[in-house]
């Protein structure tokens, strides 16, 4: 059995349990980009605990699935995995986070054909953000001379891209389009102004800063 067939069995059970989902990770990258071999899948789900447990209980003997792991994942908005025993194919089920970006990401999901059936996938722009965020977390850039990357993509809106670029601070620069570049610059200047007007110390002097702080809005 090919991996896509094992994934389809999981999707059938999700839909039968009334759980909304979105395929992310490598499978979504394969759909939107250059295909590559993968032996697991990431599926983001929205579900109440009882519904999730009903899904786990209904998978049958072909799957390894731990109800306690599902409970723990639900309590912490994290993930747990199930394994299709005949093939060894693993599916990571990720509970959708409550943050605003995750809600918007779920709303942007798209329907794509997979082996003759329509499935819900992460949008192309969100896959790009996921990949680069994951890479930056796994291999942090310690020296700007180590290398650089360039990404060109079409997106539905620029708000999520703007937040992502700003998350890298001075280690990333928006080159195009010009209105995105201006928006990022204006936001950063406004943010810096909040500190400059109070005479705050340079952000480079972290060793001199106190261990406690307060935030105001």
Key descriptive features of the protein:
8 helices; 42% helix; 5-stranded mixed sheet; disordered C terminus; 217 residues; two-stranded antiparallel ribbon; elongated; alpha+beta; 7 strands
Overview in brief:
The chain is an alpha+beta fold. It contains eight helices and seven strands. It has helices at residues 3-16, 25-32, 49-57, 67-76, 100-107, 124-138, 159-167, 178-196; strands spanning 20-24, 40-46, 63-64, 79-84, 89-95, 110-114, 117-121.
What does this structure look like?
By secondary structure, this protein is an alpha+beta fold. It is built from eight helices and seven strands, in the order αβαβαβαββαββααα. The strands form two sheets. The protein has a five-stranded mixed sheet with strand order 1-2-5-4-3. It is elongated and about 65 Å long. The C terminus is likely disordered.
Count helical runs.
Answer: 8
Output mean pLDDT.
76
Instruction: Give the helix proportion (percent range).
Output: 40-55%
Main sheet makeup: 5 strands, mixed
- What best-fitting shape do the alpha-carbon axes yield? elongated
Low-confidence stretches: 135-149, 206-217
**What's the alpha carbon Rg, rounded to whole Å?**
21 Å
Structural class: alpha+beta
Proportion of residues in extended strands: 15-25%
Based on DSSP secondary structure assignment, what is the total number of beta strands? 7
Strand order of the largest sheet: 1-2-5-4-3
Output the helix-strand order. HEHEHEHEEHEEHHH
């Amino acid at each position: 059995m090919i991996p896509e067939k094992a994934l389809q069995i999981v999707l059938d059970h999700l839909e039968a349990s009334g759980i909304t989902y979105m395929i992310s990770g490598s499978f979504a990258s394969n759909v939107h980009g250059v295909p590559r071999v993968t032996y697991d899948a990431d599926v983001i789900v929205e579900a109440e605990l009882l519904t999730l447990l009903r899904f786990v209980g209904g998978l049958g003997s072909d799957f390894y699935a731990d109800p306690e792991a599902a409970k723990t994942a639900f309590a912490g908005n994290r993930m747990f995995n199930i394994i299709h025993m005949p093939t060894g194919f693993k599916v990571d089920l990720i509970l959708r986070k409550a943050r605003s970006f995750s809600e918007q990401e779920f709303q942007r999901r798209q329907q794509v054909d997979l082996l003759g059936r329509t499935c819900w996938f992460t949008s192309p722009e969100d896959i790009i953000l996921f990949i680069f965020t994951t890479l930056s977390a796994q291999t942090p850039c310690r020296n700007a001379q180590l290398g650089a990357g360039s990404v060109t993509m079409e997106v539905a809106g620029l708000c999520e891209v703007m937040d992502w670029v700003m998350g890298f601070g001075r280690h990333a620069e928006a080159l195009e389009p010009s209105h995105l570049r201006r928006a990022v610059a204006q936001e950063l200047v406004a943010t810096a102004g909040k500190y400059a007007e109070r005479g705050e110390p340079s952000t480079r002097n972290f060793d001199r800063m106190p261990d406690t702080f307060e935030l105001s809005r």
